[in-house]
TrEMBL record:
Keywords for the protein's UniProt record, in alphabetical order: Membrane, Transmembrane, Transmembrane helix, Transport
Biological classification of the source: Eukaryota, Fungi, Dikarya, Basidiomycota, Agaricomycotina
Segments passing through the bilayer: 57-75, 95-117, 124-142, 148-172, 184-205, 217-239, 287-315, 321-344, 351-372, 378-398, 410-431, 443-466
UniProt organism field: Lentinula aciculospora
Name of the protein described by the UniProt record: Major facilitator superfamily domain-containing protein
Top-rank taxon: Eukaryota
């Protein structure tokens, strides 16, 4: 299948197959509906194929990204489960260094990985990355001191680098523009829900302390690393390729999907990636604005991921209760993310709902930082987590809706998520040990970044509005007659 779908030609006539040759009648309406179906049959076929794509991609990709988030953020629980004392992570800025060093290779390798994704193949490259970073995660259980932990974190960042941008790149090539955010949200909320209970699970693993001569924090890395390796093997079997060379749809179904994409934005088939094209795409100032916006949204998301149990402990709750209380904000965030994504796709608006979720983050972190009562501060975590988590798929959908060509999509996605890595560095350095338990400087910087996000969103939206107005009056024209999504 994978070797034949590349030759698919978009468009067909009644009585001909996709190569233009005469075809014999088929007994299946579904197989022939592409070339002359009624509207009802075509709509039914569309729903069936999209459902099949959703089920094949979103649960697996969401689960794999959940493992990536867990593996990069489980340091917080491991620290309070004994790793902090054993490796002396509370000395100076060691914990912040161990946390943020992960993001250096993560940022540097995202663009090369995304550009080379088609060359190596989705299954080959991504499953290799999952298995190897799982092995690194497992090795972290046996580090003798904090310096070796730093080395493991660097390797973890290197092998996770291309994973998230590749997933977003793949998803956005399968759907029309106003179907994307629900899918990104569905994929992302799986990771949110899993991440919400990861602290509780990690604490449960730490109760194996003493078994096989390992400390409790070591068991966290052993079990979670082994799970990642197992799912990496599963990924090699089931990971989807791009639409034009997938192996799980029939030829007719693949053709139907490619035609939908071509009608929507004109980039169903890939274009060649060259150095000249990459440099040309990088000269588009909008890519960098998207990136800064994504960084602003990532800072509160990473701050909560890395420090939620520490923040809750600082509110006066004991360790067990702090771990239990870390889950409900993620459940609320998952619900909020999907509701906003559905509204955004339904009304075909991105900026308005992004602004609403950014304000939610602003309000939430303001309450958590400056309210006096622990209950109110905890309520602020609900709002802040929901808003920041929703902005992640929102910005990715906003950018993907306004990009044409596979090469630019690959570059844009990689650059945006690289800025998310910068957000991770900022989050791990502004929430400093000396500011425990309220972390006021970190809270203020996080709030300020939400203001910056709103300003950039306004500038970008005005620019899109101006170009749309000019296109409608015929003053300007793009590669295709494609209006920007506002």
């Amino acid at each position: 299948m994978a070797s034949t779908t590349n030759s698919i030609v978009l468009g067909c006539q009644s009585g001909e197959d996709m190569t233009g040759k005469a075809s014999s009648p088929s007994s299946s309406d579904v197989e022939r509906v592409v070339c002359g179906a009624t509207v009802d049959k075509k709509a039914a076929l569309e729903r069936r194929i999209l459902r099949r794509i959703d089920l094949r991609m979103l649960p697996l990709l969401g689960l794999l990204y959940s493992l990536a988030l867990i593996d990069r953020t489980n340091l917080g629980v491991a620290r309070i489960a004994g790793m902090g004392e054993d490796l002396e992570l509370s000395v100076g800025t060691r914990y912040s260094l161990v946390s943020c060093v992960y993001f250096i290779p993560y940022i540097l390798l995202e663009l090369p990985s995304n550009v080379l994704l088609r060359t190596f193949g989705t299954r080959n490259l991504l499953s290799f990355c999952v298995i190897v970073w799982g092995a690194v995660q497992l090795a972290m259980a046996f580090v003798p001191n904090w310096k070796y932990l730093v080395l493991c974190r660097v390797l973890l960042g290197a092998f996770e680098a291309g994973f998230f941008p590749a997933l977003v790149f793949i998803i956005t090539t399968w759907y029309q523009r106003h179907e994307v955010q629900k899918r990104l949200a569905a994929f992302y909320l799986i990771s949110i829900l899993t991440g919400g209970f990861s602290a509780i699970m990690a604490y449960g693993f730490s109760q194996l302390a003493g078994r096989a001569g390992l400390n409790g924090w070591s068991w966290i890395f052993v079990i979670e690393g082994a799970l990642t390796i197992v799912f990496g093997c599963v990924a090699w079997v089931f990971l989807p390729e791009f639409p034009d060379n997938n192996s799980f749809l029939t030829r007719e179904e693949t053709k139907f999907i490619l035609e939908r994409i071509e009608e929507d934005r004109g980039d169903a088939l890939p274009d060649a990636v060259t150095l000249r094209k990459v440099l040309q795409h990088l000269s588009d100032w909008r890519i960098w604005v998207y990136g800064i916006m994504f960084m602003c949204a990532s800072i509160p998301a990473y701050a909560i991921g890395f420090f939620v149990t520490v923040i809750l402990s600082g509110m006066g709750w004991n360790l067990e209760l702090a771990l239990l209380l870390s889950a409900p904000p993620y459940i609320f965030a998952a619900l909020s993310v999907f509701v906003f994504a559905w509204l955004s796709d339904h009304y075909r608006l991105r900026a308005l709902f992004l602004a609403a979720q950014t304000l939610l983050t602003f309000i939430g972190f303001t309450i958590t930082g400056f309210a006096q009562q622990p209950g109110w501060r905890y309520f602020g975590l609900f709002l802040g987590n929901a808003g920041s988590a929703g902005c992640i798929p929102g910005i990715l959908a906003y950018s993907s809706n306004n990009v044409v060509s596979h090469s630019k999509r690959a570059v844009t996605t990689a650059i945006i998520i690289s800025f998310g890595g910068l957000g991770g560095i900022v989050a791990t350095t502004i929430f400093r040990q000396q500011d425990f338990p309220r972390y006021i400087p970190g809270i203020i910087i996080t709030i300020s970044c939400q203001v910056l996000l709103l300003v950039l969103l306004g500038i970008l939206s005005l620019n899109f509005w101006y170009h749309n107005k000019a296109k409608r009056t015929g003053a300007r024209s793009g590669h295709i007659d494609l209006l920007y999504t506002l």
